[in-house]
Design a protein that fits this description.
alpha/beta, seven-stranded mixed sheet, 9 strands
Length: 280
């Protein structure tokens, strides 16, 4: 795991992508995973905000197991070593992660062989004996393409839970409308998209990854998935009054978590937000 303060890590990460077109970014991420010496996004455990969400906001989540015994499915794009995959499985979901790097998938496969009870606070213990533990699997593929879906059993009606944590903020802003459209396509009719909004405090003009993600970004993108959004001269997303499309995802909950990863804490205060979205 990389050392150094968050700002230095973010500067170094940004420099790795400067001058490279968005089409080259998958290869740049793979280069970092292959080298293995600088993985600043890897905190060694899942974000505590997700642990608390799964434990305390079950009212917002689809049941992990139906009356017929069929498990709901969770998807974590940009899953890294698989901490979130293991956590969702502990809550009873069949859990699938996705990575563009073969080296990342190998790291996740190795980790998921024996993740133990959880590196933070026993978070991988089975949360409910009635639901048991779901399967865990990390897949190699491009989020915006369909080939990897074969490894999940197919799209079916979609995924019941999708979790975005440092995935949208890693994408070049030009790709954001595609992200929103793809999320709407992949989310089941009764499913929820959980977004960990980070970094909310970063000046947009400072670039990325990670790119600034104040709550306005999600709000504007998900009103009309696939449509471009507006920015001012400082790179800040403009809040609009445009109507929601039929494909919109609507926000059903939004809160500042009690705790989060250290880079999401600014001057001793949590700067991250958690938002939960459903189909309109």
């Amino acid at each position: 795991m990389a050392s150094g303060p968050p700002s230095q890590n973010q500067d170094r990460l940004r420099a790795h992508f400067v001058g490279h077109a968005p089409a080259e970014h998958n290869k740049r991420w793979d280069d970092l995973w292959s080298a293995g010496g600088f993985l600043p996004w890897d905190r060694g455990h899942t974000n505590p905000a997700l642990i608390d969400t799964l434990n305390e906001r079950k009212d917002l989540l689809p049941s992990p197991k139906s009356g017929t015994g069929e498990r709901a499915r969770a998807l974590v794009p940009g899953c890294g070593k698989g901490y979130d995959i293991a956590l969702f499985a502990a809550h009873g979901y069949d859990s699938f992660g996705l990575e563009v790097s073969e080296s990342a998938v190998k790291a996740a496969d190795e980790y998921l062989k024996n993740p133990g009870e959880g590196p933070l606070e026993g978070e991988y213990k089975v949360a409910d004996g009635k639901n048991g533990r779901g399967v865990t699997k990390c897949l190699l593929g491009d989020f915006f393409k369909d080939e990897w879906l074969n490894g999940t059993g197919g799209l079916k009606d979609g995924f019941d839970v999708i979790y975005d944590n440092t995935f949208l903020c890693a994408l070049d802003p030009s790709i954001r409308p595609q992200w929103a459209q793809r999320m709407a396509q992949l989310l089941a009719p009764g499913g929820v998209l959980i977004c960990l909004e980070f970094p909310t405090h970063k000046p947009p003009k400072s670039g990325g990854p990670p790119y600034a993600l104040p709550p306005t970004v999600h709000e504007e993108l998900l009103k009309q998935p696939g449509k471009d959004i507006g920015y001012d001269e400082e790179g800040k997303v403009l809040k609009s009054d445009r109507a929601e499309s039929d494909e919109a995802l609507v926000k059903v909950a939004h809160w500042k978590p009690k705790r989060t990863h250290q880079p999401g804490i600014v001057n001793g205060e949590v700067a991250d937000w958690v938002s939960v979205w459903r189909h309109k």
